[in-house]
């Protein structure tokens, strides 16, 4: 996805777009979401799109999709995916 690495305070995102951390946080206040959560949600949405596109006909592994969208740990990806979509990535693929 090309998103900057997420660190605990989001500093790399703010640095990359040339604003202060506080400016970045204020920009997200109206939506009630943190910059970090926005990026995680975008990564999860992209993963869901890729999983739906490959379905059962392509042998793309869930771990490959997770890594491709910016997750470094497939267990963390699976837990986060389940929280957002209500099912595991493999079950999502079968729907």
The share of residues in helices is: 55-70%
The rounded distance between the terminal residues' Cα atoms is 24 Å
Which regions are unreliable across 5 or more consecutive residues at pLDDT < 50? none
Number of strands: 0
* Alpha carbon gyration radius: 15 Å
Shape: elongated
The number of helical runs is 6
* Element string (H = helix, E = strand): HHHHHH
Let me know the largest β-sheet: none
Short description:
The chain is built from 6 helices and no strands. With 95 residues, it is an all-alpha fold.
Could you describe the 3D structure shown?
The protein starts with 10 loop residues before the first helix and ends with a helix. The mean pLDDT is about 85. Helices cover about 65% and strands about 0% of the residues. With about 100 residues, it is mostly helical. The protein has helices at about 10-15, 20-30, 35-55, 60-70, 75-85, 90-95.
Write the layout of secondary structure elements.
Elements: H1 11-17, H2 21-28, H3 35-54, H4 62-68, H5 74-85, H6 89-94
Descriptive key words:
95 residues, mainly alpha, 6 helices, 63% helix, 0% strand
